[in-house]
Amino acid sequence: MKILVTGGAGYIGSHTTLLLLNAGYDVIVFDNFSNASAESIRQVEALTDKKTILIEGDIRSRKDLEEVFSNHKIDAVIHFAGLKAVGESVEQPLRYYENNVCGTVQLCEVMAEHGCRQIVFSSSATVYGDPHTTPIKEDFPLSATNPYGRSKLFVEEILKDLYISDAEWKVILLRYFNPVGAHESGRIGEDPSGIPNNLMPFIAQTAVGKREKLSIFGNDYDTHDGTGVRDYIHVVDLAEGHLKALEKLPDIKGVLTVNLGTGQGYSVLDMVKAFEKASGKKVPYVFAPRRNGDIAKCYADPAYAKKVLGWEAKRGIEEMCEDTWRWQSQNPNGYTY
Question: Which of 53, 122, 218, 269 has fewest C-beta within 10 Å?
Answer without folding.
Answer: 53
